Each structure stands twice: as C-alpha cells, then as structure tokens.
C-alpha cells in the first residue's frame, strides 16, 4: 500500500499525517486549523464541505455524487443520516444522489434544535456542544425507512467512530429499523487506524454487515504545543436551541431532514427556495447557510451557478476556531434563540454580494450575518442589483 507522510505545524501543535488512500487529494480536500476548545486542539478544515471555506456549489455537488456512487446498497431505498452540525449538508447531498441512483432515499439528521418528540440522544466527546438528538421520523418517512435494508451514516471525517457507533446502536435498536442488514459508514476522510477500526467494529450492532466509504484515508498523530492554552469563549453556543418550539408556524429548516426528507422517486414536496428580487448574472454572489440549514440554500446556489452566475457557498457554525493557520477571517452573528451567544463564519470571500438564509423565517438573523460580512469587506460589496 502506497503511503505518504505530511507534517502540518499549527498554533495548537503539530500534526503528522500518514496517508494510505488517495493521498494526492490532500490539498483538494483539507486544510488545517486550531480549535479554541480545550478538549481538542486541532481541526481538519474541509475545502469541499461548505463550512469553514467557501466552495463552488458544483464542486460540493460533485463530491456528494462521488460519495453516493461508491455506496453499494443491498436494498433499493436507503435511510441516510447526517451528523450535526458539520455533516448535515454532506448527508443531504449524498442522500439526494443516492435517491436519484436508486428508487429513492430518506434523509434524516441529528440536531441541536429542541423538538416536540425526541427519538434518540447521543453525546460527541470532542465537541464543545457535546449532546445532540434526533426528532421522530414523520409517518411517511418512517414507512419508507421501515422497508430499508441499508443504514447510511454520513460524517465529514472519522477519527475513532465512537459517536457513529452510539448512533448506529441507538438507531438499529428501534423497531422501525428492524430490516436493516447493512451499515455504510461514509465520510470525506477516514483517520481510523487498524486498531481503531477493530475497536469500532466491536462497538457496532451485531448481525449487521459494515462497509466503509471515504474519498481519502490515513492515520495521524498530534503533538500538542505546551504553550497553547485556550478556554471556550463566554459567548459560545453550547445549548440546545428552542427556536422551533417557540415558533408559531413551521420553519423552512423543518422540511430539510429534521423529520426525514424523501428524495428520488418519492421526494418530499419542495418548499419554495428563497428568491432574491433583482438577482443578476452580473452579481458575484456568496450564499450563506446557517448552522444545520445548508441544503436548501445550496440547491439555490447550485441552480444559480448552473445558470451561469458566479456563486460561492458556505455556512456558519457554532464552533470557535482560532484565527491563523487556515482561518483568515471570522464573522459573528447572534445564535438563534440566544441573542447573547454567537455563531461564526470563517474565511468569507471578499468582493461579493452576501445572501444569508437562516432557515427559521427570521430576517433579522440573515441580515445580521450579511451586515457582518459588509463590515468585514466594506469595499467591493454591494446590494443585489435591481
């Protein structure tokens, strides 16, 4: 097996990467940064995820399609679950392409929104916001999932897989998933050592075949810098969000996988995508999703790019990251439901018209992010031309 070793110096310490699968794609897929989080110092910064780095929508869609094409299903209609918050958009894209390739799919995701009917609850050891849950599937989605033989768990990168193992155990224990025969663990990058893979397999449900799909694989070691000492900022959002429970009407994010979104041959009816009056082919745009609300804004941005417009896409996050390394800039906006807390958007590109979509029907949130962008890049930005 061909391997290559790459050393990455960070503020938080030194990463040594030993790449065993598709190491030539390292620069395409990853950059690196330092977390402002005492639990874990390093951060793998995806260049294709649409989170910490702006990405062409067509590039994101191509990555989703590539991963979906590598998933060898046993059945016809998989149940796809994306991990909040980073892999919600990735999971949605993989599910959409799996639905097109086969006879449909159901996409569902973990969440840090409070919901009326929580289904399962798991913890993520390294995250600053370490607890998440899943809402109950809608009746229609549950009917399709009840016939599924394939459970597809999607995350951006896997280091130990312990959180995915918790999720797999919790899901396969549900009567709705009684027919699941194959578990597919799908990621952009897998960092599982041989020992970690064996340990993960021992944690996964018995009697279910396990298959791994990734675009790049290897192992790494991290040597912390003894002088790098950080604490979580006071304004970081670590709590569940109650914005959906206090809303009077259904929010757009609720149609995007919170209760199960059907794709392919039996799609969930599309909510009208956000439309911006006067959007012009002459405007260079950057479309911002927020937190777990990625896929609807991405679909809009993708259509605009296919129509010939110059569009980039990315989304804000709860995660605090240090400036430096691969992080060149940071914007802030109020956290949904907690105006005294902040979410962050990194590496926002200059010289574009910002269009932000919060998924909660809260124009003030979207405006706050757009205003923050204009404050960072006051020259060369403009309103959408009439």
Automatic annotation (TrEMBL):
Annotated TM spans: none
Domain of life, per lineage: Bacteria
Domain Orotate phosphoribosyltransferase-like stretches: 29-218
Stored InterPro entries: PRTase-like, PRTase_2, PRTase_dom, TRSP_dom, UCP020967
Pfam families cross-referenced by the UniProt entry: PRTase_2, TRSP
Residues of the TRSP domain: 279-368
Protein name per Swiss-Prot or TrEMBL: TRSP domain C terminus to PRTase_2
Species this chain originates from: Vreelandella subglaciescola
């Amino acid at each position: 097996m061909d391997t290559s070793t790459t050393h990455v110096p960070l503020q938080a310490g030194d990463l040594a990467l030993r790449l065993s699968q598709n190491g030539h794609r390292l620069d395409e897929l990853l950059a690196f940064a330092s977390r402002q989080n005492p639990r874990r110092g390093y951060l793998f910064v995806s260049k294709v995820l649409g989170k910490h780095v702006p990405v062409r929508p067509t590039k994101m869609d191509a990555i989703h399609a590539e991963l979906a094409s590598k998933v060898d299903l046993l059945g016809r209609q998989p149940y796809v679950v994306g991990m909040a918050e980073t892999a919600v958009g990735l999971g949605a894209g993989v599910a959409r392409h799996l639905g097109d390739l086969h006879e449909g799919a159901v996409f569902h995701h973990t969440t840090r929104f409070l919901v009326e009917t929580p289904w399962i609850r798991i913890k993520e050891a390294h995250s600053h916001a370490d607890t998440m849950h899943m809402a109950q599937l809608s009746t229609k989605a549950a009917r399709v999932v009840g016939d599924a033989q394939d459970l597809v768990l999607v995350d951006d990168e896997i280091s130990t897989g312990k959180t995915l193992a918790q999720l797999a155990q919790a899901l396969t224990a549900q009567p709705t998933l009684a027919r699941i025969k194959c578990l597919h663990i799908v990621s952009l990058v897998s960092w599982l050592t041989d020992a970690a893979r064996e340990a993960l397999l021992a944690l996964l449900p018995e009697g279910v075949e396990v298959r791994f799909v990734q675009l790049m694989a290897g192992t790494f070691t991290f040597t912390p810098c003894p002088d790098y000492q950080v604490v979580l900022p006071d304004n970081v959002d670590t709590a569940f969000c109650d914005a959906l429970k206090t809303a009077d009407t259904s929010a757009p994010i609720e149609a995007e996988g919170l209760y199960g979104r059907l794709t392919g041959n039996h799609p969930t009816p599309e909510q009208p995508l956000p439309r911006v009056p006067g959007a012009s082919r002459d405007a260079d745009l950057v479309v911002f999703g927020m937190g777990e609300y990625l896929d609807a804004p991405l679909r809009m941005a993708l259509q605009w790019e296919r129509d010939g417009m110059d569009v980039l896409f990315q989304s804000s996050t709860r995660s605090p990251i240090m400036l430096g390394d691969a992080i060149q800039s940071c914007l802030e906006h109020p956290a949904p439901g907690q105006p005294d807390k902040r979410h962050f958007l990194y590496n926002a590109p200059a010289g574009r018209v910002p269009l932000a979509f919060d998924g909660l029907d809260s124009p003030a949130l979207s405006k706050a992010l757009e205003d923050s962008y204009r404050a960072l890049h006051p020259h060369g930005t403009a309103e959408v031309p009439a």
